[in-house]
Each structure stands twice: as structure tokens, then as C-alpha cells.
Amino acid sequence: MICSHNEWSPLKEVILGSSIGFEFPSDDEVFSKAAAKMGLKSGPIDNKVIEETEEGLSRFESILTQFDVNVHRINGSYCPRDVCLIIGEKIIMSPTVWPYRRKEWDLIDEVVSCVSPYQKVYIPEDKRVMFDAANVVRCNYDIIYLVGYAGNLRGAKWLKELLGHEYNIHLVHADTYAGMHLDTTIIPLREGLVMLNAERVTDDTIPTFMKSWDKIWVHPNDLFDFQEGNYGSRSIHMNLFSINEHVCLIDPDQTFIRAELEKHHIMTKEVKLPHGKKLGGAHHCTTLDLLRTS
């Protein structure tokens, strides 16, 4: 069974990506336009970057298994979070903003078919629908959706129609954050507690259902930025991953966040992914939770 309703319930099964074979494409026109603005070049990544990243991912896997999590590793997808969205028992292959990323659907589907061969996989038939799965943050029956570069309004409407009236879709627009993905901006840690990027979110723009939650505000100067790279900002260091509501994985140098989490009785396990800004993802990005239990 594949089922995941939120970002914090006890994790039982997960896909963990790999940087092996990572390269930027030369045949994706949409990506090429964005790459020119970000200073990215097509082709493979330096071997040292891959080696150091895989060292971190191996530690990541080791910690997960210590918590009795079943880990599936796949080569060819460093950030499986971007290309597949699990909401409840629905498995959705995301029509990503960069078409070349959709090649990763087959890699995800191999794992999905092995774990739960009879569950239906949804792919939007309307070619105008576009969103990366990482544009979505799940809080049980409240779903936050970023409308912007990597997710259009048609995507939000399609998702609403698929999920039905049981779910509430809360839109976040470019006036809050105009970049890619939401998991460096709004990070729910458990029911009633959320970490927020103070550079982007204000009291006025917090999703309505979260206004009464306890909040951890993180400002840019709270983050220790040790990385080089243009495919990610300083905020990538907020990109933590929860094993459950009491334990999360995080970069060891983010002492401010670790201290704030400890105040809320959340233990941190440290994993260094030293090239997230070159590869476009950190701890949450490199995972796809397949099963979280209530």
C-alpha cells in the first residue's frame, strides 16, 4: 500500500534519489531558457560532486533504516520529490515545468509497481496542466499549492477536481514566492507547528488554516550558507525532511534551525548534502515518501 497524507506522520517507506548519472540536458527548450538565466550549463556534473553527494545520501539511507524505514534507491532521479505526488492513496505523476524531468516517471513507476502493483497512477490528460510535485505541501486535507513558474493555475484546478470536495486547496502566489517549489518556504513539522521563510511569508500571507499554528520564523541571516551553485538559493538549507513529528534530517551546520526545533522537542539527525545548490535539491527534495502511517 502507498499512502501519505502529510509531511510528518511516521515514515515507513520512501524513495531516496541518487546523483549518479546526473546531468543537465541540452534538448529541453524550456529548461535551456531557464538555465541561461541561472548560469547552468548542459552536460554531466563533476565526479567529485557526485562522490560527495553519494556519501551524504548513503548516510541518509543509513539513518532512515535505523528508524525501520524501507528505503528504495533509484539512479537517474536526484530529486524524486519533483516528479511524483502522493496524496492519500492517490499516486500522481506530475507534468513538470521542464519536460525532460518526465523521463523520471518510469523510474518512479518501477518502484510503485513493486510496492503496490494494483494502485492506480494518475497523469493529467490535459497538456495545458503543469506543476512540479514540489509545488505542493500536504497537511492532511489542506493542500498548499504554489502558483508560479513551476505550477500553473490549471494544475491547481485539475488537482482540486481529482481530490474532490474533501480537500481544501490553498493557493500561494508569486507575491509570496516567485521561484520554484514550496518546500523552502512553508515547512509543516506537525499538526499545529510550521517553519516559515521570513523573507517570503508574512502574517498576512500565511495560509488561513495555519494562522493559529505555532510558528518558527527563519530569516536569511539565520542560515549558514556554505555552498556554491546557482540552482538553488540560501533558503535551500531550510529543506529538511521529517521521519516523524519528533525526528527530522537536516544539514548539521544549520544551528539556528536545530536549536529552534529542539525548543519544540524535535530531535535532529545530521546529514551533509554539500552540493544541493548545484544539483537543485536538499533533504526533502531527494525523497519521496510512499507510506506514512497515522
Short description:
The protein is of the alpha/beta class. It has six helices and 17 strands.
Task: Give structural notes.
It contains 6 helices and 17 strands. It has helices at residues 29-38, 47-66, 105-115, 153-163, 255-263, 276-279, and strands at 11-16, 23-24, 43-44, 70-73, 84-87, 90-93, 121-122, 136-139, 142-146, 168-172, 186-190, 193-197, 214-218, 241-244, 247-250, 267-270, 287-292. Helix 5 (255-263) links the parallel strand 15 (247-250) and strand 16 (267-270). The longest helix is centred in the first third of the chain and has 20 residues, at 47-66. The protein is globular.
Walk me through the topology.
Elements: E1 11-16, E2 23-24, H1 29-38, E3 43-44, H2 47-66, E4 70-73, E5 84-87, E6 90-93, H3 105-115, E7 121-122, E8 136-139, E9 142-146, H4 153-163, E10 168-172, E11 186-190, E12 193-197, E13 214-218, E14 241-244, E15 247-250, H5 255-263, E16 267-270, H6 276-279, E17 287-292
Radius of gyration: 18 Å
Note the main sheet: 3 strands, mixed
Broad shape: globular
Number of strands: 17
DSSP summary: helix tally: 6
Give, in spatial order, the strands making up the sheet with the most strands: 4-1-17
Helix content: 10-25%
Structural class estimated from helices and strands: alpha/beta
Average pLDDT figure: 94
Q: In percent, how much strand structure appears in the residues?
A: 15-25%
Low-confidence stretches: none
N-to-C CA distance: 14 Å
Q: Please write the string of helix (H) and strand (E) elements.
A: EEHEHEEEHEEEHEEEEEEHEHE
